[in-house]
Structure formats: structure tokens, C-alpha cells
Structure to design on (340 residues):
């Protein structure tokens, strides 16, 4: 056997070994807030609900966790800097290195959200008198007021490339959706001006934005538009509330909350609005609450519900099958997010 044949044989053996080696899936966990210890804390549990661990362990109230897979950090809102004041902290996944990111700035209760790049965290501050949209870097050293307007401005979502922020504002008289660059500048209206719109959700590829609006005689429905506000189309058309759209990771499906059956349910539809299906089918006296989130692999949907008599964190398959109570605790368990 010549040298070339020997090298080729060794290469084939290495490739065979790589092919035979089992693929280990990335570990996916779930963070949530709970008052099971007498005050609100941030917990982390496995995907199946096992091994819940208290991450914050503080006498103050800590909650509303938000995960950044890029920064490898959880942010959360806390009252540890004053009972009547909210601050944003970040911590490692094991609860270590808890750091105040907003310092002297009192923030609003709207959940802060990490940028897709992991460089920034967007949040609201200013209270009811002058709410503004801010961003802060991951170290808490650079805080920027993006909106700086006397109107009511509330953060909504990041673009997939992390360069644009959508927010809601009543600066033109009615609450509508606006876009602004991460470095600030002039905000531009995407919806309005005569009817209200909000809760935008960007498609994973950045080509479309879904949102909820009352432009149909006050009946809230879900619409879709291009990133510049053009090419608007209607996705839902049923009596009763339809809102809070959330795209699947592959951009093929949109989950949303609907009251068309008399109580809040989770529905799913194709990205063009077709094939609308009730996933939860809960009894009329019970309801699905917020915190709707697709798993990173798109196979499951995380939500919270009082199906079992008190508020717990649930998960179900993306087709609505196999719903499972993950927390199953007499405490209030809410604000759940995927961690991967």
C-alpha cells in the first residue's frame, strides 16, 4: 500500500468514526419566576420540568427572566434597589455574577429584551409620566435614550439583525408601531394614523412583521406588513380578539392567542394565515395566559395556564398534543422562557 492509499484509508476511518458518533442535542432548559419561597425568585428547570433551582436567592422580588444565547446571560427585573423601584440585573446561567445594568435609572415593568447580537438590552423607563425606550450594553456602562419624546413610548421588539427596534407610541394621537435604529435617530411610523396597532413580531428572516390592530371596526385582528410598513395583508378574520402573534423558528407558522371561542386559547396558522387551528381547547371556565414561546427547535410551545386550578408553566407539542404541566406547584409560576 502506497503512502497516498494509507492516508486515504486513515481519512475514511476518521470520517466513519465521525459518522458513527452519536449526535448530542444541545441542552434546552426553562427559566421562570415563582413566589414559592414567599417572594418572587427566578428559577431554572430542565425541559421536562425536573430539577428546579432557585437562581436569584434574594429577599427582594426578582422576576421576568430573559435569556440571551449570545451573551450567555439571563436578565431579570428586581426590587432589590428599593421596594418601589425596579432595576434590571443580569446573571450567569448558574446565578453567579449578578450585576445591576441600570444603576440609577428606575425601569418600567415591561420585560427588557436582549438584542439578537447580545450587545444590547432594550427596556422602558420613565414611568407613566414620560415612558421612553432605552438600550444598555451588556456591561451596564452605556445607557442610551432612543426615543426622547414626550409621548408614551414602549419597547416592542428587535429586528433579527439587531439593528432596528420597533416600539409603540401615541405621539401622533393613537398608539401605533414605529421603527428606530439602535443608535437612535428619527423614528418612522409603520402603522396608523387613525386606528391603533401594536405587539409587532418580526419573522425570523426579517422580511415580514406581524402585528395586532383594531382597524376592523374595533375588532382586534392580526395583520402582516413589510419592514417599511408597506404591503399590508390581513391574516385573521373572526369575531373576537386575535392577537399576540409569535413566529415559529423556521418562519413557517405563527402562533397566537384568540378569544373567538369565548376564552383565551392558543391557535396556530400558516404564515399566510391559512390553516388556523386551536391547539389548547381548554374548558370555557379556564384560560391560557401569556408567555407564549416556541422552543428553539420548533417542536414545542411554552405557555402558562390555570388549567389545573392555579397558574403554572405548561408545554405542549407544536401540534397541540401532549400538554404537560411542568411546574405543578400551588405557587404562582409565570414568565417562562426557553434557555439554550
Amino acid at each position: 500500500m502506497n503512502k497516498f492509499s494509507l492516508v486515504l484509508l486513515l481519512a475514511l476511518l476518521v470520517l466513519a468514526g465521525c459518522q458513527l458518533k452519536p449526535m448530542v442535542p444541545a441542552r434546552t432548559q426553562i427559566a421562570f419566576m415563582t413566589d414559592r419561597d414567599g417572594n418572587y425568585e427566578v428559577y431554572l428547570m430542565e425541559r421536562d420540568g425536573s430539577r428546579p433551582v432557585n437562581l436569584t436567592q434574594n429577599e427582594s422580588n426578582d422576576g421576568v427572566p430573559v435569556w440571551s444565547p449570545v451573551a450567555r446571560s439571563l436578565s431579570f427585573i428586581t426590587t432589590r434597589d428599593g421596594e418601589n423601584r425596579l432595576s434590571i440585573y443580569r446573571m450567569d446561567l448558574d446565578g453567579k455574577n449578578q450585576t445591576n445594568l441600570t444603576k440609577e435609572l428606575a425601569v418600567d415593568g415591561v420585560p427588557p429584551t436582549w438584542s439578537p447580537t447580545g450587545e444590547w438590552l432594550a427596556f422602558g423607563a420613565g414611568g407613566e409620566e414620560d415612558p421612553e425606550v432605552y438600550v444598555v450594553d451588556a456591561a451596564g456602562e452605556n445607557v442610551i435614550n432612543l426615543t426622547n419624546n414626550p409621548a408614551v413610548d414602549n419597547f416592542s421588539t428587535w429586528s433579527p439583525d439587531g439593528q432596528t427596534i420597533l416600539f409603540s407610541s401615541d405621539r401622533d394621537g393613537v398608539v401605533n408601531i414605529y421603527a428606530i435604529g439602535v443608535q437612535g435617530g428619527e423614528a418612522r411610523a409603520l402603522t396608523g394614523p387613525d386606528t391603533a396597532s401594536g405587539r409587532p413580531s418580526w419573522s425570523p428572516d426579517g422580511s415580514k412583521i406581524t402585528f395586532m390592530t383594531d382597524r376592523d371596526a374595533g375588532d382586534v385582528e392580526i395583520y402582516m406588513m413589510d419592514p417599511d410598513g408597506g404591503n399590508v395583508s390581513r391574516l385573521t378574520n373572526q369575531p373576537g380578539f386575535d392577537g399576540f402573534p409569535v413566529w415559529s423558528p423556521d418562519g413557517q407558522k405563527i402562533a397566537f392567542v384568540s378569544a373567538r371561542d369565548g376564552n383565551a386559547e392558543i391557535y396556530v396558522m400558516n404564515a399566510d394565515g391559512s390553516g388556523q387551528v386551536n391547539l389548547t381547547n381548554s374548558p370555557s371556565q379556564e384560560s391560557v395566559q401569556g408567555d407564549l414561546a416556541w422552543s428553539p427547535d420548533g417542536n414545542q410551545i411554552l405557555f402558562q395556564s390555570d388549567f389545573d386550578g392555579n397558574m403554572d408553566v405548561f408545554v405542549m407539542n407544536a401540534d397541540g398534543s401532549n400538554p404537560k404541566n411542568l411546574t405543578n406547584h400551588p405557587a404562582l409560576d409565570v414568565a417562562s422562557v426557553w434557555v439554550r
The first strand starts at residue 29 and ends at 34.
